[in-house]
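> forwarded from #structure-qc
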């Protein structure tokens, strides 16, 4: 609600305990999926040499690292710990770099599907052999690591008061929004071109629910990763313009954090287990997880091809 001239409360809760519990639960769910999916990808040569599954591997590792460090970060805030400067910088660097790598990996995944669908001959001849997917994944990690180092470098000489909190994460907000905006434009362009090409080839139509549903699910999952950053930026702008109280901002921010953190746990299903090839190998490697094929329900059946269905992705 709009801010007025009344005195602001002396203490505004930042809900660090809620953030800790949400991060821990999300981390636990993603840890399970990391174990069964990434171990299967590493074990099966056909999967670990395929760009799509290698990128899924990097996406899950990045998300797991981000949520794990987020849990540690918010727990030390809840305990009012005073870590040394190097420990604080290490936590901030891991949080920012892993978040950046998630977005970079999603961008590369969109470009990979764009090349596979719109330029299949060139893609099959140049991008399906060798270790280039792993090299590309390593490159995204290097770029993602450079981003926090460049943001934190100007403040390297400032005095550190021993408090490592979310204020440390707010450095370079404008640069982060620009980075997210560029990646979002690239992702949207890639999926629009895939959609246009699919319609031109006749594989995306009302009869092909699998292809249309895949595009819709990927779009919703991309929104889960991208929207929180824009929403938090808008909340910060509204607070600086004194249109909302800090208490309202913090309450909205923790609700957004909880919802989108838990929603990100669906990523292994959207990008991994909906692929019949991966799900089949998971069932062979972990027979106890064969029930996942039934649990996934309509999402899996909509994506797994039948004799009369052609799936564009």
């Amino acid at each position: 609600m709009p801010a007025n001239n009344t005195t602001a409360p002396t203490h505004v809760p930042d809900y660090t305990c809620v953030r800790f519990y949400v991060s821990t639960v999300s981390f636990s769910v993603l840890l399970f999926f990391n174990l069964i999916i990434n171990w299967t990808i590493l074990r099966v040569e056909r999967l670990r040499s395929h760009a799509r599954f290698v990128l899924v591997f990097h996406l899950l590792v990045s998300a797991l690292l981000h949520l794990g460090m987020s849990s540690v970060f918010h727990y030390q805030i809840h305990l009012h710990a005073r870590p040394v400067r190097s420990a604080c910088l290490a936590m901030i660097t891991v949080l920012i770099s892993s978040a950046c790598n998630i977005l970079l990996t999603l961008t590369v995944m969109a470009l990979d599907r764009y090349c596979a669908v719109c330029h299949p001959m060139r893609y099959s001849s140049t991008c399906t052999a060798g270790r280039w997917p792993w090299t590309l994944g390593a490159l995204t990690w290097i770029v993602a690591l450079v981003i926090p180092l460049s943001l934190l470098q100007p403040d390297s000489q400032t005095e550190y008061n021993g408090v490592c909190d979310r204020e440390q994460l707010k450095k370079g907000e404008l640069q982060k929004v620009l980075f997210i905006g560029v990646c979002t434009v690239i992702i949207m362009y890639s999926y629009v071109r895939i959609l246009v090409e699919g319609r031109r080839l006749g594989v995306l139509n009302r009869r092909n629910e699998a292809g249309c549903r895949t595009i819709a699910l990927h779009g919703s999952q991309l929104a889960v990763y991208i929207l929180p950053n824009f929403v938090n930026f808008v909340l910060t702008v509204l607070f600086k313009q004194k249109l909302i109280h800090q208490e309202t901002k913090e309450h909205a921010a923790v609700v957004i954090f909880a919802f989108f953190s838990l929603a990100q746990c669906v990523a292994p299903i959207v990008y991994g287990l909906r692929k019949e090839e991966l799900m089949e190998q998971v069932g062979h490697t972990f027979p106890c997880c064969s029930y996942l094929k039934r649990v996934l329900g309509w999402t899996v059946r909509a994506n797994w091809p039948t004799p009369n269905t052609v799936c564009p992705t």
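QC bot note: The CA atoms of residues 39 and 285 lie 9 Å apart. The domain at 16-303 is CATH 1.20.1070.10 (Rhopdopsin 7-helix transmembrane proteins).
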